[in-house]
Design goal:
By secondary structure, this protein is an all-alpha fold. The radius of gyration is 22 Å and the shape is globular. The chain is built from 26 helices and no strands.
């Protein structure tokens, strides 16, 4: 392991005392200023901005009442009981609950609490999950703790906690799977791998790759998937889950083709004029191709470093383009980038993986649209550039300067705010994806900014694939 990491970890203590003092002082100042700015952003207090938590909460309330959590009602009525600013401005708007039935149990428990208490519990659990994931990634890859902390705090933490999304829990399951594989606990890897199905379009890649490459995990994977199926039928119904797979998910993917929040190939193709149906088909074909690629890529990467690659690499393949991807999912490629950067067998792999780690550490659309995030993002870029270049200070300064210039320009050249969708009050029997499609159609636009701000993330994802490909070629 030490051979693979040679030259990858920066050593501040090897520099002159005055340089060390200046670097540590600059870092401390940046962290303090960044935390101060962040606390003054519009995301806080958290309980007022966690829109997606309200979706989870209302899905749980619907299930507790014996109603269909995938229907327009009672989700719509519930969401407007605890409105955010957007919901106040659009009195008929509703956001769909998109998780499978086996996720409903914990959500139903959360929904038994008052919304304020539910927000507090969710936030604390998310912070614990993020901290646990950072510790596991650091231990699995034998990295100093600050490296995964700098790489994951914003990319996963900030895209999950302020919005109330489940990304931190998915990351914890992924990190635990990698840790179990690296320490030879294959049966535990099966259990944790099944938990990555919290988000099925990511977990499916992990589970299939585990089944293909880890024989001792196969029985546990089969049992775990059977347990999830039983839980889905216990907490939901067979009819609801069949509708979820055959009607709801295709409808949801179709409704989000033009959403500016999407990062998938389907969105990109549709933005450049490809018909929606063709864009969806091509995005699906790409996803299947990535699933095929994930197995040999993970197998090859596991030969240069820890067996965690068998979990981390397929997760990166899962979130690279496809049909339905958001900023939270894209950050799940970060562990693979860190692994490839730390154990790169050649310069090309080191450069590509290092660049990917830097680019994926920041959810670029957030600091571009919120000035209070600029300083903390630059701190993360500095730390990740330091790691990726083994402490080459001129390159670190250049990376921070380039990022500052790009973000400063973006912050001061924002496109017009998205239109607030005002939809009619659809009958309760209307599929919620119909309402969602109508709402997104009102906010769809063809602004170059919306594509440009995603380019760093797309480049980071493709750089991970390129780094993996260089290992396969070797």
């Amino acid at each position: 392991m030490e051979r693979g990491r040679q030259g990858r970890l920066p050593a501040v203590h090897q520099r002159p005392l005055i340089v060390r003092a200046l670097l540590i002082g600059a870092l401390a100042l940046g962290l303090v200023a960044g935390a101060r700015d962040l606390s003054r952003s519009w995301f806080f207090p958290l309980d007022r901005s966690q829109l997606d938590l309200r979706v989870l909460y209302c899905g749980g309330r619907a299930a507790n009442a014996g109603a269909d959590p995938y229907a327009l009602e009672p989700i719509r009525t519930c969401e407007h009981e605890f409105p955010t600013r957007l919901m106040v401005a659009s009195p008929n708007l509703a956001f769909p609950f998109t998780l499978p039935g086996y996720d409903l149990g914990p959500i139903e428990l959360l929904a038994r609490l008052p919304i304020g208490a539910a927000s507090a519990v969710f936030t604390v659990l998310s912070l614990l999950a993020l901290a646990g994931a950072i510790a596991l990634v650091a231990r699995t890859l034998d990295l100093a703790w600050w490296i995964p902390a700098a790489a994951l705090t914003l990319s996963v933490g900030f895209t999950s906690l302020p919005l109330g999304q489940s990304g931190a829990f998915e990351l914890l399951a992924l990190a635990a799977t990698g840790w179990a594989l690296t320490t030879g606990r294959d049966r535990w890897a099966a259990a944790f791998g099944v938990l990555t199905l919290l988000e099925p379009h990511v977990g499916a890649f992990v589970v299939i790759t585990l089944a293909a490459l880890v024989p001792r995990a196969r029985a546990g994977l089969a049992i775990g998937c059977a347990v999830l199926l039983a839980l889905a039928l216990t907490w939901s119904t067979l009819g609801a889950q069949i509708d979820y797979l055959t009607v709801f998910l295709p409808g949801q993917a179709s409704s989000e083709v033009h959403s500016s929040q999407q990062y998938g190939l389907t969105y990109l193709l549709a933005t450049f004029g490809v018909p929606d149906g063709a864009a969806l088909v091509l995005g699906t074909v790409w996803t299947l191709a990535m699933l095929v690629v994930a197995v040999p890529l993970a197998r090859a990467t596991a030969t240069i470093g820890p067996r965690a690659a068998i979990a981390f690499v397929p997760a990166a393949c899962a979130v690279t383009l496809g049909t339905y991807m958001h900023a939270t999912q894209e950050a799940l490629a970060v562990p693979a980038a860190l692994l490839l950067a730390a154990f790169a067998p050649n310069r090309l792999c080191a450069v590509l993986a290092g660049a990917a780690a830097v680019l994926l550490a920041v959810p670029w659309s957030f600091p571009a649209g919120t000035k209070q995030l600029l300083v903390i993002c630059l701190v993360c870029i500095a730390l990740m550039s330091w790691f990726a270049t083994s402490g080459r200070l001129p390159i670190v300064i250049a990376a921070v300067a380039a990022s500052w210039l790009g973000l400063f320009w973006a912050e001061n050249h924002l496109p017009p705010a998205l239109r607030i969708p005002v939809v009619p009050r659809w009958p309760a029997s209307t599929p919620i994806t119909v309402e969602s499609r109508a709402a997104i159609a009102q906010t769809a636009r063809s602004e170059p900014y919306d594509v440009a701000i995603k380019i760093p993330t797309w480049c980071g994802l493709l750089a991970v694939l390129g780094a993996g490909a260089s290992v396969v070629k070797r």
